[in-house]
Design brief:
Blueprint lengths: L6 H21 L2 H9 L3 H28 L2 H21 L3 H29 L5 H29 L3 H19 L25 H28 L6 H13 L3 H6 L3 H20 L4 H28 L6 H29 L5 H29 L3
Protein name: MFS transporter
Keywords: Membrane, Transmembrane, Transmembrane helix
InterPro entries: MFS, MFS_dom, MFS_Exporter, MFS_trans_sf
């Protein structure tokens, strides 16, 4: 069996963790900074933060084309440098307009750096262990999502906010230096690339992308209203919800990838959607801390299986020189789903008079619809169009 944990795979995982850690360290405290620095209302703060998502969605399709057309490592290094630099932009922004410009730059850079990072990871993973490798690579982001916000909130509560920026920049620089050490397998770069829609969006994977929307929308709703729902239920230590989610996600990394490599794609897809549907149902009827945190564990478990399964399916539906496009298409549908979830949940919360449980019951229904959509449409399309 080919070696998975090569030096380059380890370095790729480390650089991705440091990038994601820097991102999530400051991401959870950014609303506080905006309100304190510019004295904005909650709605104004939300619009400023949304500018990041808009830029990400606009540039995400082009990121795949860039990664597939040019040297992946060079693209990764340049994007990593800009990723670190944009945090200086936040610090230097003296007006809301300048801050929004920095925010949109951040979104654009994030769309490229995440596409490049995941594509390089796939390049250094042995083909026969791709599912397992993607699973462990995704684990680095999961760990960053759990540790980053905890450290960020601690710094915010005990120090001046500049320390959040300094810490983010520091870990970003360490990640950039780590990325410089990665040796990416040599591949032929086409000097003349035919410009077509398939260079920006992997058309064959669109049905799978629609499937992803059913679960990504729920993810957007969850991160927008999970904390408020917990407060509504009188739950103490609501922050533990995301820790339990992370534990659930991490638990899947030790078996989901291996099962993917053995060809159990359909089984994992159905199992993940069913777990997500049932866990959101449990979350929606939660009336105690036990149910609240137990559902978090299973939500994480479901998404922990779904994420590498979806990404593996996207990659398998493209050729080797479309890996960047495949990854950017995966992230495009993921970003779109989260964005829709954030927007729709606001309207739904108003409609249901802030009875947040109904949002999560709708999430359960959405994931259930996703199961039937997969069985009736996506499953056969994947079987016919997968390339490897």
């Amino acid at each position: 069996m080919e070696k998975l944990w090569s030096k380059d795979f380890i370095l790729t995982n480390l650089s991705n963790f440091l990038m994601a850690f820097a991102f999530y360290l400051i991401g959870t405290t950014m609303p506080f900074y905006i309100e304190e620095q510019f004295h904005t209302t909650e709605s104004e703060t939300g619009l400023i933060l949304a500018s990041y998502i808009i830029a990400t969605l606009i540039l995400r399709p082009f990121s795949g084309f860039i990664v597939d057309t040019f040297s992946r490592k060079k693209v990764y290094i340049i994007a990593y440098f800009l990723f670190v630099f944009v945090y200086f932009g936040y610090m230097w922004a003296s007006t809301i307009t300048l801050f929004i410009i920095a925010r949109m730059m951040h979104g654009g850079v994030w769309s490229v750096i995440t596409t490049a990072s995941s594509t390089i990871a796939i390049d250094v993973i042995p083909a026969k262990r791709r599912g397992e490798g993607i699973g462990f690579f995704g684990l680095t982001t999961t760990l960053a999502m759990a540790v980053g916000p905890f450290i960020g909130l601690y710094l915010y509560e005990h120090f001046d906010f500049d320390y959040n920026f300094y810490s983010t920049i520091f870990f970003g620089i360490i990640g950039l230096l780590t990325a410089l050490l990665i040796k990416v397998p040599v591949r032929e770069i086409k000097t003349k690339t035919v410009i077509s829609l398939d260079r920006f969006i992997l058309k064959a994977a669109i049905p799978i992308g629609i499937n992803l929307l059913f679960t990504a929308i729920c993810y957007g709703m969850l991160f927008t209203y999970a904390a408020k729902y917990g407060m509504q239920l009188g739950i103490e230590n609501i922050g533990l919800f995301f820790l339990f989610m992370a534990v659930g996600m991490m638990a899947t990394r030790f078996f989901a990838g291996k099962l993917l490599d053995k060809g159990y794609v359909n089984q994992l897809m159905i199992a993940s959607q069913a777990t997500i549907a049932l866990s959101f149902l449990l979350f929606g009827i939660a009336n105690s801390e036990v149910l609240f945190f137990t559902s978090a564990l299973f939500i994480g478990f479901g998404y922990g299986i779904a994420s590498p399964t979806y990404q593996t399916m996207f990659v398998n539906m493209g050729t080797n020189d479309q890996r960047g496009t495949a990854n950017s298409t995966f992230f495009s549908f993921y970003d779109l789903g989260i964005g829709l979830g954030m927007v729709l949940s606001g309207f739904m919360a108003t409609y249901f008079n802030n009875e947040f449980k109904y949002l999560f019951l709708i999430c359960s229904a959405s994931a259930t619809i996703g199961i039937f959509y997969y069985l009736l449409i996506s499953k056969n399309i994947y079987r016919i169009k997968k390339n490897n």
